[in-house]
Amino acid sequence: MKHLLATDGLDPRLATAVLDTADELKKTLLGREVRKLPTLRGRTVVTLFYENSTRTRVSFEIAGKWMSADVINVSSGGSSVGKGESLRDTALTLAAAGADCVIIRHPASGAAHRLAGWLAESGTAVVNAGDGMHEHPTQALLDAATLRERLGTLSGRRVAIVGDVLHSRVARSNIHLLTALGAEVVLVAPPTLLPVGVSALPVTVSHELDAELAALDAVMMLRVQAERMHGGFFPSAREYSVAYGLSEQRLKMLPEHAVVLHPGPMLRGMEIASAVADAPSSAITEQVRNGVHVRMAVLYHLLAGEEEK
């Protein structure tokens, strides 16, 4: 694996190998007082974030450090980007300085692919940590890891992705990955929050959350991305919550084994009730925990897998 830019087109065997590696890493670190592996010693990993992040950035940093890599954080506000330097020049500078892997989050869709093209000759690996409304592949991988852990398998499972699908790169990456791994995906949202061309995707579309709950194995609530909205996509926060929020009453309508996911940050009370977010069926904290191991596995496959073989 040279880069991880998207789940669209990702070989299901490779995705499964990454998930299996994450499982092995999790078992290896379980119970260790010092959670440190020498796997990436001597490697340099750079996180280049043009958008704010807590979960993704921290988990990548922890993942790199647990594998003994040197991790350097670069933010747009504290670098030459703030002086007007182009993304291309920033990328070439990082590669010239010795970066073995650049993890990028950028507001422009396609930024990670452009970066990979510019760095092709340098041999520097690129990981897409979220590009505009396009994709967020490691989030989909950690979601899949969490579902496998809770449900045993993804094949034949019915997963609903609920809410602001239109603006969600998490939804796009999950659609591609979950269907490739054998799951059935249902998109539940008002018509205004569904992307153009949704009928071409390998999914079922519904506008009635209550009608879908009884047949689900998992429900993934999405954040309403108000910062990307220009105009009225729904009447009010209260009406959105009534129609599409996961309340305690709706939680009772789910099968007993069903899993509740949310990529975060959560808007408690609107997208999901606090009692639901903290319920035993919720795997939201597990998603964060698994995110570290999945990102360790991604770095392993990018930077050490071939050498280990």
Question: Order of strands across the widest beta sheet?
Answer: 7-6-5-8-9
| Residue share in β-strands | 5-15%
Query: Fraction of residues in helices?
Result: 25-40%
- CATH level-3 fold name of the largest domain: Rossmann fold
Main sheet summary:
5 strands, parallel
The fourth-level CATH homologous superfamily of the largest domain is Aspartate/ornithine carbamoyltransferase
Q: What is the total domain count? A: 2
Pfam family, one: OTCace
Protein name: Aspartate carbamoyltransferase
Family: Belongs to the aspartate/ornithine carbamoyltransferase superfamily. ATCase family.
Organism: Amycolatopsis acidiphila
Describe this structure in words.
The protein is α/β, with parallel strands linked by helices. The protein folds into 2 domains: 12-136 and 288-308, Aspartate/ornithine carbamoyltransferase (Rossmann fold, 3-Layer(aba) Sandwich), CATH 3.40.50; 137-287, Aspartate/ornithine carbamoyltransferase (Rossmann fold). It has helices at 12-29, 55-66, 87-96, 111-118, 137-151, 169-180, 209-212, 237-244, 248-253, 274-277, 284-303, 305-308, and strands spanning 44-49, 70-75, 101-106, 125-131, 158-162, 184-188, 204-206, 218-221, 259-261. Strands 7-6-5-8-9 form a 5-stranded parallel β-sheet, covered by helices on one side. Strand 5, helix 6 (169-180) and strand 6 (184-188) form a beta-alpha-beta unit. The chain is globular and about 55 Å long. The mean pLDDT is 92.
